[in-house]
Hints:
By secondary structure, the protein is α+β, with helices and mostly antiparallel strands. 46% of the residues lie in helices and 12% in strands. It has a domain at 10-87: Arc Repressor Mutant, subunit A. The protein is built from 6 helices and 3 strands; from the N terminus they run ααβααββαα. InterPro entries: HTH_HxlR (IPR002577), WH-like_DNA-bd_sf (IPR036388), WH_DNA-bd_sf (IPR036390).
Amino acid sequence: MEKMENRCPVETTLSLINGKWKLLILKELSQGPVRYNQLKESIPAISTKVLTQQLREMESDGMIIREVFPEIPPHVEYSLSEMGVSIFKIFAEIRRWGLEDDKRNNPKCSDCQSCRPYHL
Length: 120
C-alpha cells in the first residue's frame, strides 16, 4: 500500500476496506480465527486468486494476522489484528446510522451479530 502522508483520514480508512470482498472477509473473521478453506466456503463467489490477493493486502495493511501451524499437513489461520478489530467501531456507527437515520430504505437488523465481533 502506498504511503499515506498528508491524506485525508477518511480516504485512508476507506482505502483499507475498499473493494467488494474486504468487508466480507472482515465480517467472517469477526467471530474468531478462520482457516483459508472456511473463508472460501463462506464467500463462495470469490475466486481463489482474489481471496489470496485480498488476504495478502489486508495482512500487509495490518488489518489481519496470518498464522501458519507447522503440522502435517500444515494449515493457516487468519484472524483480526488489533487494528482490524478497531474498524468495527466504524461498522457499529454505520449500523446505527442504517437503523436510525436511513428513512428511505427502512432497514431492519437480523441481529446476526456479525457487525459486533467477539473481541469488543
